[in-house]
Amino acid sequence: MSLIEIKDLKVHYPIRSGFWNRVTDSVKAVDGITFNIEAGETYGLVGESGSGKSTTGKSVVGLEKVTSGSILYNGKDITKKENRRKLDYNRDVQMIFQDSLSSLNPRKRIEDIIAEPLRNFEHLSKDDEKLRVLQLLNIVGLDADALYKYPHQFSGGQRQRIGVARAVATNPKLIIADEPVSALDLSVQAQVLNFMKKIQREFGISYLFISHDLGVVRHMCNNIAIMNRGRLVEIGTREDIYNHPLHIYTKRLLAAIPETNVNQRAAHRASRLAVEKIYEDQQSKYYDEDGMAYPLVQVSPTHSVALPEAIAKQLASQEGEVQA
Amino acid sequence: MAENFEQHSDISAADLARLNQEAQAEATPSTAKIIWNEFKADKPAMAALIIVVGFIVFVMIGALFINTPKMMETNIMDYFDKPFTAGFWLGADSGGRSVAKQLIVGSRNSIGIAIGLTVISSTFGIAWGLISGYFSGYIDWGMQRVYDFMMMLPMTMMIIVLVTIIPHYNSVSLTFIFSIFYWEGTSRLIRSRTLAETQKDYVAASKTSGTNHWKIIFKEIMPNISSLIIVDCTLSFAENIGVETGLSYLGFGLPNQTPSLGTMIANANDPSNITLYWWTWLPAALEIVVLCLSISYIGQVLRRAADASQRQGAAD
Ligand SMILES: Nc1ncnc2c1ncn2[C@@H]1O[C@H](COP(=O)(O)OP(=O)(O)OP(=O)(O)O)[C@@H](O)[C@H]1O
Ligand SMILES: [Mg+2]
User: Fold this and answer.
1) Domain span at residue A324?
2) How far B215 CA lies from chain A's nearest CA (Å)?
3) Where does the ABC transporter domain lie (chain A) (predicted)?
4) Together in a domain, A223 and A274
5) Is B27 within 8 Å of A149 when comparing Cβ atoms?
6) Which of B133, B216, B247, B293 could form a disulfide with B191 if both were Cys (CB 3.0 to 4.6 A apart)?
7) Do A149 and A230 belong to one domain?
8) Distance of alpha carbon A42 from alpha carbon A37, whole angstroms
9) Is the CB of A98 less than 8 angstroms away from the CB of B2?
């Protein structure tokens, strides 16, 4: 059994308008997605801005009211509030937020911020609690003198470490990491990613790692789902996605990874333009009449793509993949 | 599970006291300290603070030594005594009653009502705004319709009607009547800030940390809008001094035998008092001007203290 099983999850936000303030339409932030997260793995969820990644992540920690579908944890559907409460669900599933500054209460000291989940879920004695907070700070590489400071006294990278410390405090089984490093510069990104990996090894945590950047995900994730306008367009292992991408949207995201080798800049640019041209020309092949992604079809035991069956098979054989 | 953390961190119970002490040395100053520094850096504000606090303490204590019924007895011999005559430091009014003593008791009454009104209406308005803004949806919708209804009522007229209907009212019941009509402004202000604040990720983080709604509202969100609350309370206090004064001036505030700043200013209703017997109303009028100006000056300093970028006081 997987740690988390997401089945046909939909989150629609109603749009109200008119004199009676009635629901006239809805934003389909998440529109029917299905995937599983295994214990101990890092699952990547990638897509451009506005594709519904954060909404998916928030649904999994129970912050979002889902429209339909289910999320199973230990066989219980945690989209229901009372199931979450019975399981003490958030003791096991925590979140690291996209914006580190806004995710830390500016009026609280670091000690109180990190101790918050401990106070609600573990009820330690005062000394034990303080000790645990100091240990957590130590694990994420911050000094003890951070204890009585306020969030604005730290740099972005340090704040994200504090966010990680809070998420790890109750020793959870799964952490939703919502673009944990996208606001940081490259060298700090690498540091934060490395200690997130270290923590994963030491505590046996799974991550749902959300990002818009396939370059970052490559170093973190074994399995990856590509999200586009609320739907998944491709699911596969790292190997499948990086070496045999099938959907044009995935190819675009891959082409958007910045090329660091100066000598290959020109070639990289040419290939990016080529992908962009195919994307412009072949929209109708990759999306249905409404411009939405097709349902997923399996092309290998690990690899699925959102295309009509025939096209998917054809593309897959071109890529030389083993057929399912 | 605790072993798990012991293993991966080189901090153990033995280090606790030492590390705690180190951290304490690095701690940031508290809000109260920051506000105090701000006052120290701004001399006029300090003067305003001393005037307001000193005056309130003076009238609260001074009024205890004055026998109000005896003071309010008419005494024809002292009819419109001039200021600085024997026993009448600020003169006497048409009833031969000491203006200075009336000013002390009257200020006590007026300021007492203003404080009571500010405490009750702000507490209620803040709670209303916070709850309405935090929960949104149906709760917010219902609470805002109540707000709309209250705003629709003609406030001054309602107060006058209530005061006329209720047979024996005193300063306490008057305070409660005022409070019914003075929480709305605060609640709207607080609600709009709460709406914005609730969207921030730290609220989401508190939810995933298992903190319940009430704690999130009053312990997480409220401290973040404390600057707004402090400023709003100070300004409504200044405004509330005017509320009782205005109504008493019109004759619908405190009963006649209870002196207040409003009843004293009402002496100016008589044209001859305005020019000939100026001492009957001028001290009370001046007092209100000075108090309100000082309080709004204090409000500005508090606002500055709350907003880090505008601070003038030294950092420590
Ligand atoms: N509370 C809300 N009400 C209405 N629409 C919303 C709400 N929250 C999100 N949306 C919409 O849902 C869509 C998905 O938003 P989401 O935040 O999940 O995107 P994202 O993939 O995380 O993007 P980013 O990379 O910019 O963080 C967007 O179009 C957004 O406008
Ligand atoms: Mg997002």
Assistant:
1) 245-324
2) 11
3) 4-254
4) no
5) yes
6) B133
7) yes
8) 8
9) no
For B23, which of A136, A148, A153 is closest by C-beta distance? A148
Within a domain: residue A21? no
Question: Which residues sit with their C-beta closer than 6 Å to ligand 1?
Answer: A 13, 27, 29, 47, 49-55, 98, 212
The burial class, CB within 10 Å (0-12 / 13-18 / 19+), for B120 is middle
Neighbour-count burial of B28, counting CB atoms closer than 10 A to its CB (0-12 exposed, 13-18 middle, 19+ buried): middle
State how many domains chain A has. Answer: 2
Distance from CA of A83 to the nearest CA of B (A): 14
In a domain, B256, yes or no: yes
- A139–B224: do the CB atoms touch at under 8 Å? no
Write the DSSP symbol of residue A213: -
In a domain, B184, yes or no: yes
Q: What is the pLDDT along chain A (324 residues), one digit of tens a residue?
A: 789 999 999 999 988 877 777 877 888 999 999 999 999 899 999 998 999 999 999 999 999 999 999 999 988 999 999 999 888 899 999 999 988 889 999 889 999 999 999 999 988 998 899 999 999 999 888 988 888 888 988 998 899 999 999 999 999 999 999 999 888 888 888 888 988 999 999 899 999 999 988 888 988 898 999 999 999 999 999 999 998 888 888 988 888 887 777 788 888 888 888 888 888 777 777 888 787 888 888 888 889 998 888 888 888 787 765 444
Q: Are strands A231-237 and A76-77 parallel, antiparallel or unpaired?
A: unpaired
- Is the CB of residue A94 less than 8 Å away from at least one CB of chain B? yes
User: How many domains are contained in chain B?
Assistant: 1
Residue A90 at interface with chain B, using a CB cutoff of 8 Å: yes
Closest residue (by CA) to atom 29 of ligand 1? Answer: A50
Q: Indicate whether A237 and A263 sit together in one domain.
A: no
A256, A261, A265, A270: CA torsion to nearest 10? -50
ipTM above 0.95, yes or no: no
Whole domain around residue B233: which residue ranges? 35-310
Residue A6 lies in a domain: no
In this structure, the answer to whether residues A276 and A204 fall within a common structural domain is no
Is position B4 within any domain?
no
- Under a CB-based contact definition with an 8 Å cutoff, are residues A163 and A100 in contact? yes
Contacts of A106 in chain B (CB under 8 A): 202, 224
* Residues A182 and A311 both lie in one domain: no
Residue A25, phi-psi category: left (phi > 0), alpha (psi -120 to 50), beta (remainder): beta
Give the best residue of B201, B216, B311 to mutate against chain A (max A CB count within 10 A): B201
Domain C-terminal end among A193, A217, A243 = A243
End-of-domain residue from the set A222, A243, A264: A243
What distance in angstroms lies between residue A50's CA and the mean position of ligand 2's atoms?
7
Domain-located, residue A10: no
* Tokens 């009370």 sit on residue: B284
Residue of chain A with shortest Cα separation from B22: A145
Rounded Cα distance, A15 and B78, in Å = 75
Same domain flag for A272 and A176: no
Task: Calculate how close chain A gets to B212, using CA atoms only, in Å.
Answer: 9
Q: Can you give the CATH number for the domain in which B205 is found?
A: 1.10.3720.10
Residues from chain A contacting residue B19 (CB–CB below 8 Å)? 134, 144, 147
In the A/B pair of chains, how many CB contacts fall below 8 A?
120
A132 Cα to chain B: minimum distance (Å): 7
